[in-house]
Design brief:
The chain is mostly beta strands and 112 residues long. The chain is built from no helices and three strands. It has a three-stranded antiparallel sheet, with no helix packed on it.
Length: 112
């Protein structure tokens, strides 16, 4: 997940990012694979940053199953990324319904 400051001219600047390989969402001592079509609650580690969003700027949040080469690649196969060479295209979905709400918390510092 990336937190991005989008300027009025369309230029976008990465402010911070966090990553979680979801097969390890229940702990790094065991792999629990996801099932296609099933909804999962995922808590991401908090980002630690600060930024002044000037008037006209927008906040963008990017969600992806990979951020290579910044982090180890994710081929979306469920296999070992170190000995596979072919990836699978997947589609991520962020749910935002009453049954499956999503939340992004961005604390705002008071004006001085």
């Amino acid at each position: 997940i990336k937190l991005i400051d989008v300027h009025p001219d369309g230029k976008a600047y990465n402010l911070d990012e966090t990553i979680q390989r979801l097969r390890y969402r229940e702990g790094y001592d065991k792999e629990v694979f996801m099932e296609k079509g099933k909804v999962y609650k995922v808590n991401m580690s908090p980002m630690v940053t600060s930024n002044y969003f000037a008037p006209g700027h927008r906040i963008r949040i990017e969600v992806s199953s990979s951020n290579f080469p910044r982090f180890e690649r994710n081929l979306n196969t469920g296999g070992n990324n170190y000995d596979e060479s072919k990836g699978v295209t997947i589609q991520n979905a962020i749910h935002h319904s009453k049954a499956y709400p999503s939340v992004v918390r961005i604390p705002i510092a008071p004006k001085k």
